[in-house]
Amino acid sequence: MCSSLETGMSKAWQALVLLALPACALAAQPVHYAYGTTPTAAQVKGWDVDVFPDGEGLPPGQGTVAQGEPLYEARCSACHGLFGEGVAKFPNLNNSSLDDLKATPPVKTIGNYWPYAPKIFDYIRRAMPFPMPGSLTDEETYAITAYLLNLNNLVGSDFVADAQTLAKVQMPNRNGLIVNDLKPDTHAKRCMKGCAAGSALEVKTNAKDLKGLTPPTTGPADGK
Ligand code: HEC
How many CA atoms are closer than 13 Å to the CA of 48, on its beta-carbon side? Predict the structure, then answer.
């Protein structure tokens, strides 16, 4: 807008426009709100940790099954069990049978349900161990991922996890998931007239009824 005004103008107008130019130039600058600072490259790197299913974003480094075993036992087994079997209601990490997906309720674990191994690394790095996420180094995370894949019989005991090898692990459920972006996400038929009053509706299940899930952190549904 600012510079297009200059075309086809007399000298006098051009002089005036030139006077106005610094204001135009200023308007194009980002607004400064007088708080915050520009993040450093190191700070951005600290947040930029997402890993994609094809392994894009995996950091340098590597870890072996043997290195992962003691790390897993020290940092993870209290909740996930010595062999990944899961303590109390903490998730089972050792189950790679596709048949278990058909059980009632289905047993979904990283081994039989998760379609891409790089996402296991991603999840552990950003979320585990539960009380101290972010406390593992990349190398430790690679080693624990290698150990868990071995525990699930998906790789041999000589497996070395790194940015290349993790992307190549063929997870059993790789082709078992479908992309479904249909909305709404319920098969119930939408009510258009004579529908139940909202006040008559109540939530009948709560997290306690869904066995195998994380213990509920909130009270019973509908306060009952
Ligand atoms: C204090 C208990 C605790 C510890 C210690 C712990 N976890 Fe977890 N873990 C959890 C809970 C709770 C969840 C479920 C979190 C959720 O669903 O939001 C979970 C979920 C997971 C999952 C996803 C399971 C799934 O099928 O969705 C993985 C993988 C995992 N943990 C790995 C680890 C690893 C590796 C360590 C050690 C570095 C670790 N956890 C330490 C409690 C723990």
Answer: 10
Name the closest-CA residue to atom 9, ligand 1. Answer: 130
Q: Which amino acids bring their CB within 6 angstroms of ligand 1?
A: 75-76, 78-80, 90-91, 93, 109-110, 120, 123-124, 128-131, 136, 144, 214
pLDDT in tens, the chain (224 residues): 444 444 444 555 444 444 444 444 455 666 667 778 889 999 998 888 999 999 999 999 999 999 999 999 999 999 999 999 999 989 999 987 899 998 888 889 999 999 999 999 999 999 999 999 999 999 999 999 999 999 999 999 999 999 999 999 999 999 998 877 766 666 778 788 888 888 887 777 766 666 666 655 655 654 44
177 CA to middle of ligand 1, Å?
22
Calculate how far, in angstroms, residue 70's C-alpha sits from the geometric centre of ligand 1: 16
CB 120 within 8 A of CB 145: yes
To test the ligand 1 pocket, which listed residue (71, 75, 80) has its Cβ within 8 A of the most ligand atoms?
A: 80
CA of 196: how far to CAs of 183, 185, 192, 193, 202, in Å? 22, 20, 11, 9, 11
